[in-house]
Design a protein that fits this description.
This protein has helices at 29-44, 64-71, 74-77, 81-88, 101-118, 143-154, 173-184, 202-212, 215-220, 243-247, 250-268, 277-289, 416-419, 428-438, 447-467, 484-490, 510-520; strands spanning 18-24, 51-58, 91-95, 131-136, 160-166, 192-195, 226-234, 299-305, 330-335, 347-352, 359-366, 381-387, 391-399, 407-415, 472-475. The chain is an alpha/beta fold. Helix 1 (29-44) crosses helix 14 and helix 12 runs parallel beside helix 15. The two termini are 38 Å apart.
């Protein structure tokens, strides 16, 4: 896998002469909480093109002042006011319907006005390196109508057009295929940037480097030495009044079929032929093609109920959730990768809301030491912690210090807040928008990846719905439903044999830090 050191030319500002960025759905929560803060983050770090304009488009009737107030989230309000005002001065708003060709022609006219201003001094022509970015921060029900309106009303074949779209990409294989067919009939694959924002997370982007830039990992990265892999996605909060939206999808569709399967692909893929986007995505797609559909007997489902003291409500207590809903808020499932490297290794996925802690991690558990000379030996584990704070650590057995000869669990610890205390870890959306500007699709989804992922999950989802499988109850703030730990152990996962509490870089237990992080950020 070829690589090269970064150079000043890697900055997208050196590739893109100018850009007009259109945020469609600009009055919604996604735009306010994620898209505009990410754009501002790039702006304040000098990573937007020097000549740039940002246009918000939505159905809401807003004045320019109201729009700028709407997109100024709490995060932006704490920024230096001179920088914020300079950023907002480059933002403009226009209202229109999502399915109106005439409204999008008005948008096109506004874009052209900005492009003429941006290209002053360049002979009045649109530079060949100018780009238009259309970021669709809209509900999935209008993805295709908006795409049609862009193509018929605001698309310019003489510049580089980039269309950014977020999940969900359908509800099952058939709806995904239909969506992809309609969308790809309008735009070329190189113009489409399908976001799974977990691919923009710092630790997920670090996994290939851990794998392929450290020779000792490759030697043991196979079924001869790895017993199981566990991917965990735990949230310490419930639906918080958004249960109506969540109920349409459930936890499997919400995070497993996309975020978690993508983390698996990055962790398990073979070395790509190069770092080119298509080579990386081909390596990920190859992993998916070797995973058979998940069997219903390899799944356990749960739904949270109120906690024991009654301070937190249950899932169905949310007034936006349909009465009698059996939508799972927790799932543990097991899948297998049937290739030479991973054959027979259980891949255990566990995801849930309203659990005991906030944690997203990939845990590789190695096999037992053969015939150890010591008792109470725990397995080695490599953990890549994606959140709430980034860390990589390797759990090893070590002699207890002092006048002892017994082995104890310890860790080789790379906690980012300690090792890279001065580094600014960008938000995932910030990192991905930078790649959109730079024309790099490495961390965006290709059609065949989406189809292959749905082929794995669709039979299971349809069977669960057809059989009306009832999820098991579990208390808000617990580790999950009864039997969940036994389920994991059935597939070979071993919890530590010794008492062990891994401290973070401040010397406090990780669970304590995770809880504090969740409360602070109202997760």
């Amino acid at each position: 896998m070829s690589s090269r050191p970064a150079t000043p030319d890697d900055n997208p500002c050196h590739h893109v002469a100018s850009a007009v960025i259109v945020v469609i759905g600009a009055s919604g929560d996604l735009a306010k909480k994620k898209t505009f803060p990410a754009l501002f983050g790039l702006f304040r770090n000098g990573l937007l093109p020097e000549r740039v304009r940002i246009i918000g488009y939505a159905r809401s009737k807003l004045s320019q002042e109201d729009f700028r107030e709407r997109i100024t989230s709490e995060k932006l309000k704490t920024a230096p006011q001179d920088q914020l005002q300079q950023f907002l001065s480059q933002c403009e708003y226009i209202s229109g319907q999502y399915d109106s060709q005439e409204d999008f022609k008005r948008l096109h006219s506004l874009i052209q006005d900005h492009e003429r201003d941006l290209e002053k001094g360049l002979h009045g022509e649109v530079n060949r390196d100018h780009i238009r970015v259309f970021y669709m921060a809209t509900p999935p029900s209008v993805f295709v109508p908006v795409a049609r309106s862009i193509k018929s009303g605001a698309y310019d074949p003489d510049v580089k057009n980039r269309i950014v779209i977020e999940k969900p990409f359908g509800r099952d294989l058939a709806s995904c295929r239909q969506f992809l067919s309609e969308f790809s009939s309008l735009f070329r694959e190189e113009e489409i940037y399908r976001i799974d924002h977990y691919l923009g997370k710092e630790m997920v982007k670090n996994m290939p480097i851990i794998r392929f830039a450290n020779i000792f990992f490759e030697a043991v990265w196979n079924h001869e030495y790895i017993d199981n892999v566990q991917i965990t996605f735990k949230e310490a909060f419930g639906t918080q009044g958004r249960g109506g939206y969540f109920d349409e999808y459930g936890v499997i569709r919400d995070v497993m079929q996309n975020h978690m399967i993508q983390m698996l692909c990055v962790m398990a893929m073979e070395k790509p032929a190069s770092l080119h986007a298509d080579d990386v995505r081909t390596a990920k797609a190859d992993v998916l093609r070797h995973i058979p559909p998940i069997k219903i007997e390899d799944v356990i489902l749960g739904q949270y109920v109120g906690d024991t003291d009654g301070s937190e409500p249950g899932y169905t207590d949310d007034k936006t959730v349909p009465e009698g809903s059996i939508t799972p808020t927790y799932a543990s499932l097991v899948l297998f990768i049937n290739n030479d490297r991973w054959r027979g290794v259980p891949i255990i996925m566990k995801a849930g809301k309203a659990m005991d802690e906030a944690k997203v991690e990939v845990r590789v558990q190695f096999k037992d030491v053969p015939e150890p000379h010591y008792q109470h030996i725990s397995r080695n584990e490599l953990i890549a912690r994606v959140g709430p704070t980034e860390a990589v650590y390797l759990k090893i057995m070590n002699k207890r210090p002092g006048l002892f000869s017994e082995p104890v669990i310890s860790e080789l610890d790379l906690s980012y807040r300690r090792r890279y205390s001065n580094a600014k870890i960008p938000e995932a959306y910030e990192a991905l928008l930078l790649e959109v500007l730079n024309g790099d699709q490495s961390h965006f989804l290709r059609e065949d990846e989406l189809i292959a992922a749905w082929e794995i999950f669709t039979p299971l989802l349809h069977e669960l719905e057809r059989k009306h499988v009832q999820p098991k109850p579990y208390a808000y703030g617990s580790r999950g439903p009864e039997g969940a730990d036994d389920f994991l152990q059935k597939y070979g996962y071993k919890r530590r044999q010794q008492a062990y509490d891994w401290p973070d870089d401040l010397g406090r237990p990780v669970k304590e830090v995770a809880k504090e992080y969740a409360e602070k950020n109202k997760l």
